[in-house]
């Protein structure tokens, strides 16, 4: 079953440490790996690339590629590691991805994507989904999107995560492609209305619980991205509104829950900076947030850095009681 809320695959961000941290904030949100290429899985260290903590479930593996046989092989590897979903990337606009003939440029080759869907579905029992844009370059009319959806749905895909912007394949950087092309939520709503049997998840520019609620009146799910990374507590707000799972009482509880994981990972050879970089925004908007970020940033990279660095960062924050009082005061002052 597709979660109502999911967290986008974000290159260099949604690694296994990030996903573990996010799971503590939201028990039910579906978490996605960074895009992993089928070539990397075929040639690389699968244990290093694909291993993840069981706490991360439900977790989806996002694959980049266009060779049906190689994609099926990579999907099988992902399924063997326990991923709950295989997602095909048809949304990334970077030059490197285009040169490998995958990502957003594949919207212009629905037959290729359909072949990948068939090949993967014949190889694994977990759901196969697609993350796509609403169009590319000057091919951004609704019929272009619908043709792509219909061709790949016929191959067996029934769930689409649709970034409500077109991709500009030449002239814009990946970063610019996340903000310059205008959002067109209505097109995603129309897709759901015209293809009601498909599961449609909307992605792009969502930053508040109210926005999620409005979108969920039109589509089946919402995928959030950078807002959840820069201000992770947003995930607990979404969980409370749409997930129904238990959420941590406060941010201090999240840090306490991370400490055993940190100790285990450090003992296994991980570096503290690779874990704490995902935690920098935990106290965003609250007293002491800057001191928390600064202490972690300045100390987590040092040789031999361990969990005492996290405790040192906590020491620069108000006491939990003071923190809760400041939250209540802020709520009253804003009429919240």
Give the strand order of the largest sheet, numbering strands 1, 2, ... along the chain.
Answer: 1-2-4-5-6-7-8-9
Q: What is the average of the pLDDT values?
A: 92
Instruction: Estimate the helix proportion, in percent.
Output: 40-55%
Write down the CATH topology of the largest domain: TIM Barrel
Counting helices, strands and paired strands, the structural category is alpha/beta
Strand content: 5-15%
- CATH homologous superfamily of the largest domain? Aldolase class I
CATH level 1 class label of the largest domain: Alpha Beta
> What radius of gyration results from the CA coordinates?
20 Å
Distance, first to last CA: 33 Å
The total tally of domains equals 2
């Amino acid at each position: 079953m597709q979660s109502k809320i999911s967290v986008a695959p974000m290159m260099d961000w949604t690694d296994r440490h990030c996903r573990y941290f996010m799971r503590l904030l939201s028990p039910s949100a579906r978490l996605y790996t960074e895009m992993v290429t089928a070539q990397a899985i075929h040639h690389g260290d699968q244990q290093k690339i694909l291993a993840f903590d069981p706490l991360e479930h439900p977790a989806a593996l996002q694959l980049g590629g266009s060779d049906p046989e190689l994609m099926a092989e990579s999907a099988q590897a992902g399924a063997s590691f326990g991923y709950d979903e295989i997602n095909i990337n048809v949304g990334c606009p970077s030059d490197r991805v285009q040169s490998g003939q995958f990502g957003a440029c594949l919207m212009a080759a629905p037959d290729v994507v359909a072949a990948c869907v068939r090949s993967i579905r014949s190889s694994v029992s977990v759901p196969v989904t697609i993350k796509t844009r609403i169009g590319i370059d000057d091919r951004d009319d609704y019929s272009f999107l619908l043709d792509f959806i219909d061709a790949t749905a016929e191959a067996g895909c029934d769930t689409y995560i649709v970034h409500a912007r077109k991709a500009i394949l030449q002239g814009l950087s990946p970063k610019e492609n996340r903000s310059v092309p205008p959002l067109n939520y209505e097109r995603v709503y129309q897709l759901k209305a015209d293809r009601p049997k498909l599961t449609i998840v909307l992605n792009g520019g969502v930053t508040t619980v109210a926005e999620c609620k409005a979108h969920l009146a039109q589509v089946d799910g919402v995928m959030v991205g950078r807002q959840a990374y820069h201000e992770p507590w947003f995930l607990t707000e979404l969980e409370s509104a749409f997930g129904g799972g238990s959420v941590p009482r406060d941010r201090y509880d999240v840090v306490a829950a991370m400490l055993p994981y940190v100790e285990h990972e450090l003992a296994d050879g991980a570096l503290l900076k690779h874990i704490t970089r995902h935690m920098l925004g935990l106290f965003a908007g609250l007293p002491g947030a800057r001191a928390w970020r600064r202490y972690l940033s300045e100390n987590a990279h040092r040789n031999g850095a361990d969990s005492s660095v996290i405790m040192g960062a906590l020491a620069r924050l108000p006491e939990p009681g003071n923190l809760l009082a400041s939250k209540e005061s802020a709520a009253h002052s804003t009429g919240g």
